[in-house]
Amino acid sequence: MKKNTVSFRPDFVIARNQARGPTPKSDCRNVLYGLMTGNIPAVNTLHSIYCCLERPIMFGALKEIQKRLGKDKFPLICQNYYSTADQMIISPDLPCIVKVSHAHAGMGKVKVDDMTAFKDISTVLSLHNDYCTGEQYIQAEYGLRVQKIGNSYRVMKKIFTGSGWKSQFGGAMLVEEELTPQYKSWIDACSHCFGGMDVIALDILHGEDGKDYIIELNDTAIGLLPNRWEEDSLALRNLVLDRMDELFCKEIVTIAPPSEPFATPSSDLRYRGKRPDIPLYEDTPFGRRLISNNNNNNNNNNNNEQQVATKPAFEWINLAFGVGGIILGVLVGYMISARR
User: Fold this and answer.
1) CA 340, CA 256: separation in Å to the nearest integer?
2) pTM higher than 0.90, yes or no?
3) Coil, helix or strand for 108?
4) CA distances from 177 to 47, 147, 196 (A)
5) pLDDT tier for residue 118 given thresholds of 50, 70 and 90
């Protein structure tokens, strides 16, 4: 069966899924590259989405923040990087977690308890040309996710309820926590990565030793707290509208006071775009009604100004013709009486 092809040109994009999933079928990088070729504005920026495709690039950005703020103020977990399986000679502190390639959400992660298991996993990785990372296994009391959507912040506490070490498969309960100044400073610092990220989440482990360990940065494909998804979805919507306003609109004009018939709260304010050919509409109970067209408004304004400017001149001309007619009438009457 032949598939129908639809061609369109987007003006703005919001990405809410990973551009590259764990399987070849879920790899959508070619779509991302096409959007980047067209310089399409997006939330998050396409450049930041591209940089977050690979785990080492993301971790390098976190290392830069730690270098700037200090290890005490930004407790990033220690990590080893192996470009190939042949380099897996020195392991991290054992037990450790080996993360293969780019996958997220618990995919491609293996817990290694001793050096024998570390060698075994290297023999498996030798069958493919994948990089991997290794980091010390943290015996966590609970996990944290600090989320930022525009200017909206949220902290979620992840309490592990299952028997496995992976919360994605072992089970976990999410509880909303208070945003502390420390968490806010961490997420604000991360939001400046890759030129700026509007939608972002930072994963943290709170160990049984009482210390926090920053382990991962997540971009626009973050999940939302189930009982707060309406608020977070509204924050996403407002964020997108703000970014589109910055790109396509230059001012806000009032077109319908609340006291006017058919005026609704949503129709009180409308945007006037940079393009002069974009008309302004108002939503009424009977559908959309054209309020004005910027071109027509400009032309009407110019005509009105010309009329106002020329009105006094026309009045003086009419007055002159009137006075001249009276004088001419008097002269003609005098000449006729003189002849008689």
Assistant:
1) 73
2) no
3) coil
4) 31, 11, 25
5) very high
